Amino acid sequence: MAQSQPDPQHRPLRERLPAYAVHALTASGTAFALLSLIAAFQGDAAEAFFWLGVALVADGLDGPLARKIGIAERVPAINGETLDLVVDFTTYVFVPAAILISSGLAPFPLLVFLGCVIVASAAVYFADTRMKTEDNWFAGFPAVWNLVIFYLLIFPLPPIVMAVLVVVTAIAQAFPVVFVHPIRVKAFRPLTITMLVVWAIAACAAIFEDLDPGLITRTALLVTLVYFVGLGVLRRPKHTD
């Protein structure tokens, strides 16, 4: 008779520790988000985005590590997907909305209204089970409000234009359009990874230049933005129910 498998809840600690470490890495994003929020309240948007950048690095590392060690089998009691959603909503949506409100880019009541639009619409998007296509593209605008606010601070717009852009982008979370996942989408992956590296270097430069970068950095940010948005425009979205 086949020998029964040990209960995953009773694995030796040495087998569970790597999984706990990866969960701790994921959860650290909330701590970086809090540091970002403090910086925003102190009026330092560049430092706020520095901490969000650190959180973004942690977010990029935890997924591959989790898949490599088989985290769900080692610690089944902790749902990594739920933890990841909590951290992503905090770092991609909630804190960026707070940064926008503290930015002074428009009259305060308008910024508060736009912040509310961002967090409320993104909450619905995060609960939508159709946010990914079968081939790993994002369906609808993927609620990366950290990037939207980052660009708005570097390329400020008149308040009414900014308001329209934010509202349209919020609605676009439900649009039948797609946006590339720069890591998981196989099409054009080598070029996409290259553009991602270029964007990361330009974003770091912009942060260290206090969100007032020179022409080369601004050009790199705009070119990469056009590339990533353009991929979704050129790809015909697949029908999803």
- Amino- and carboxy-terminal Cα gap: 45 Å
CATH topology of the largest domain, by name, is Four Helix Bundle (Hemerythrin (Met), subunit A)
Low-confidence stretches: none
Q: Mind telling me the CATH class of the largest domain?
A: Mainly Alpha
| Approximate strand percentage | under 5%
Could you say which structural class the secondary elements and strand pairing correspond to? mainly alpha
Question: Number of DSSP helices?
Answer: 9
Mean pLDDT: 87
Percent helix: 55-70%
Can you summarize the main beta sheet? 2 strands, antiparallel
CATH architecture of the largest domain: Up-down Bundle
The count of DSSP E runs of length 2 or more, i.e. the number of strands, is 2
User: Element order, helices and strands?
Assistant: HHHHHEHHEHH
Q: Order of strands across the biggest sheet? A: 1-2
Describe this structure in words.
The protein has 241 residues and is mainly α. The protein has 9 helices and 2 strands, in the order αααααβααβαα. The chain has a two-stranded antiparallel ribbon. The protein is globular and about 60 Å long. The mean pLDDT is 87.
Key traits:
single chain, 241 residues, mainly alpha, Four Helix Bundle (Hemerythrin (Met), subunit A), 2 domains, 2 strands
